[in-house]
Every structure is written in C-alpha cells, then in structure tokens.
C-alpha cells in the first residue's frame, strides 16, 4: 500500500484486497505500512482486520516516518489487530535514520520489544 501523494490507485487496504480478489491473484498479498495507513486509512485497526489472511507484510513507522515510539500512532491498536487476524508474518521498521540509523534502530527495537512483543510483567 502506498499513499495518495505517490500513486493514484491501491492506496487503501480495501482497494488492494478488492484488486487481489477480483483478479483472482493467487500468492499475492497486501503489504501495509503504518506511515501510509496514517495518511489514507480511517482506521489502521480496521484496515488490518479487513486484510485477514491476505496480509503478507507489515512496515512500522510513526506518523512522521520516525521510529516507532517517537510520534503519535497507537501501535497497541496495530498489534492487537495483527493478533486478532492471527498474523504470523514479518514485521519490520521502515523509518528515517534520525538521530542516526543505528540509534533509530535501537530505539525502535526497545520500544517495540518491551511494550508489544515481550512486555515486562
């Protein structure tokens, strides 16, 4: 999925799902990106749930394209929706290298690991 500022079609999960199903595209999946969903989806939670088994890959970034945890997106909602559909595919961070690439990666890993992936009890 890509946002409307970069393309004029398949900018929402629903459009991608419809395209795949209407054209009977086997082995074709939806790739969601939280940064792009923030622009074109009313609800990232709903977009993820709509995809169901057609969700094949997920990119995480904040509303500003910074690392998760340095913005305003609700990643709890994102991970709850992924759990609800039984998603067990790849999730990766695609963010700006701010303040540096290694530091952004470190902060994203810490935020996601301790808050969502393996929360401390």
Provide a short characterization of the protein structure.
This protein has 121 residues and is α/β, with parallel strands linked by helices.
How would you portray this structure in words?
The protein is of the alpha/beta class and 121 residues long. It has a single domain, classed as Divalent-metal-dependent TIM barrel enzymes (TIM Barrel, Alpha-Beta Barrel), CATH 3.20.20.150. The chain has five helices and three strands, in the order αβααβαβα. It has helices spanning 13-22, 34-40, 44-51, 75-84, 101-117; strands at residues 30-33, 55-60, 91-93. It has a three-stranded parallel β-sheet with strand order 1-2-3. Strand 2, helix 4 (75-84) and strand 3 (91-93) form a beta-alpha-beta unit. The radius of gyration is 14 Å and the shape is globular. The termini are far apart. The relative contact order is 0.15.
What structural keywords apply?
3-stranded parallel sheet; 3 strands; 43% helix; alpha/beta; 5 helices; globular; TIM Barrel; 121 residues
Shape annotation: globular
Classified in CATH, the superfamily is: Divalent-metal-dependent TIM barrel enzymes
Q: Are there runs of 5+ residues with pLDDT below 50, and where?
A: none
Total helical elements: 5
| CATH class placement | Alpha Beta
- Major sheet: order of its strands? 1-2-3
- The chain-level mean pLDDT equals 90
């Amino acid at each position: 999925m890509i946002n409307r500022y970069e393309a004029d079609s398949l900018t929402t999960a629903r459009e991608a799902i419809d395209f795949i199903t209407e054209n009977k595209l086997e082995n074709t999946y939806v790739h969601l990106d939280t940064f792009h969903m923030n622009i074109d989806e009313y609800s990232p939670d709903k977009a993820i749930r709509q995809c169901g088994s057609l969700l094949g890959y997920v990119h995480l970034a904040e509303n500003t394209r910074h690392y998760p945890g340095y913005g305003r997106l609700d990643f709890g909602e994102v991970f709850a929706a992924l759990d609800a559909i039984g998603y067990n595919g790849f999730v990766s961070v695609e963010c700006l290298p701010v303040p540096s690439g290694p530091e952004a990666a470190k902060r994203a890993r810490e935020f996601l690991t301790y808050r969502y992936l393996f929360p401390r009890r």
